[in-house]
Write a structure and sequence with these properties.
about 350 residues; alpha/beta; seven-stranded parallel β-sheet; 11 helices; about 40% helix; about 20% strand; binds nicotinamide-adenine-dinucleotide; binds uridine-diphosphate-N-acetylglucosamine
């Protein structure tokens, strides 16, 4: 049986996707350097699926390692999650981001090309759109990312597009995720950020579990219904399923195509807090703070093209997201070190 190679497969979204592929009957190989994840994820995946994925410890930038992985296994498709993702850190250390996300991806693509393994699903982000001047994002908007992290994603999209244009055997799906949240319903895998979380849902979860005292709400004077920022949160389980649909699509379509993965509706910061309060029974104190630099008031995905082409549609709502995020957090108050 041909295998699926998942780079970054012990990370947050990668681990949920590995479970989805194993449960769909695929043989999954994980490559991760554990720079932002724990090896314990492999035990947890085994507990959920009954199968431990084969694991290579190392970087996508390690050419010799990649060549040996491709030489040892017939790899049908590569699902490429590996990379750094903290916007603020990318502004402080742009070279780290271009080195790991862009140069690393080039080493990976080169190894794929040499091995003749030319089906790729790439983790891109809604951040590639930058500030397009509309709130409903379609895939054909111009891409003008506003920070090095976003630039690195755009650059990898461009590289993949050029590669496919040079060799029509390549088929590439660029998946632009909106705001992934939630966890596997078992509570065995979930998001385990190191240090103080940058993103809303993991921050709320740490307030709910008592590790942080209150949530700073970054601005309540936006032109949104309740004045707080609006985003398209998407359950990580829906997202994982999107990768299966993308993988099937690549079997039938050559080319390089971008797809939004979002629900198509936005929720405000206060709606997310209220939903989390309800799910957890915890008070979740908030403090209204100044706006965060670089934040937009409101945006969400137009998922129509993805629905039409991939047959994919998000099925889980905000209550499902906070329920599963809370279930993971309360069962693992210190993440994988609990
Ligand atoms: P994550 O940090 O949990 O997972 C990334 C994984 O890649 C980690 O396990 C890390 O150890 C590994 N990694 C990093 N550099 C590597 C390298 N050079 N070689 C091998 N492994 C490496 O992040 P995530 O939230 O699961 O995100 C996965 C992908 O999705 C990333 O590319 C990210 O940019 C993208 N994305 C994430 C979000 C989000 O909000 N989580 C949104 C849009 C896009
Ligand atoms: C962030 C990244 C984006 C990435 C996305 C993935 C930035 C500027 N952008 O987007 O590149 O693709 O995550 O999930 O970091 N908020 C608070 N208090 C907090 C944290 C957040 O009020 O402590 C608010 C924000 O102002 C925003 C909303 O919650 O309105 C969501 O924030 P966050 O989870 O950080 O995601 P994004 O900013 O949308």
């Amino acid at each position: 049986m041909n295998s699926i190679l998942v780079t970054g497969g012990t990370g947050y979204i990668g681990s949920h996707t590995v479970v989805a592929f194993q449960q769909a009957g695929f043989d999954v190989i994980v490559l991760d350097d554990l720079s932002n994840s724990s090896e314990q994820v492999l035990d947890r995946i085994e507990r959920i699926t009954g199968t431990r994925p084969r694991f290579y410890l190392g970087s996508i930038a390690n050419q010799a390692l990649l060549n040996s992985v491709f030489a040892s296994h017939p790899i049908d498709t590569v699902i490429h999650f590996a990379g750094f993702k903290a916007v603020g850190e990318s502004v402080q250390h742009p070279l780290r981001y271009y080195q790991n996300n862009v140069a690393g991806s080039m080493v990976l693509f080169d190894a794929m090309q040499k091995a003749g393994s030319k089906k790729l699903v790439f983790s891109s982000s809604a951040t590639v759109y930058g500030d397009p001047g509309v709130i409903a994002y379609t895939e054909d908007l111009p891409l003008r990312p506003v920070n090095p992290y976003g630039q690195s994603k755009r650059m990898v999209e461009d590289i993949a597009r050029d590669l496919q244009a040079s060799d029509s055997d390549w088929s590439v799906a660029l998946l632009r995720y909106f705001n992934p949240v939630g966890a596997h319903p078992s509570g065995l895998i979930g998001e385990d950020p190191r240090g103080i979380p940058n993103n809303l849902m993991p921050y709320i979860a740490k307030v709910a579990v008592g590790e942080l005292s209150e949530l700073n709400v970054f601005g309540d004077d936006y032109t949104t219904p309740d004045g707080t920022g609006v985003r398209d949160y998407i359950h990580v389980q829906d997202l994982a399923r999107g990768h299966l649909d993308a993988c099937r699509y690549l079997n039938e379509h050559k080319g390089c195509t971008a797809f939004n993965l979002g629900t198509g509706r936005g929720y405000s910061v206060m709606e997310a807090v209220d939903a989390f309060r309800k799910a957890s029974g915890q008070p979740i104190p908030v403090r209204i703070s100044p706006r965060r630099a670089g934040d937009l008031p409101e945006y969400y995905a137009v998922p129509d093209f993805t629905r039409k082409e991939l047959g994919w549609k998000a099925e889980l709502n905000l209550d499902d997201m906070v329920r599963d995020h809370w279930n993971w957090q309360k069962n693992n108050p210190k993440g994988y070190d609990s």
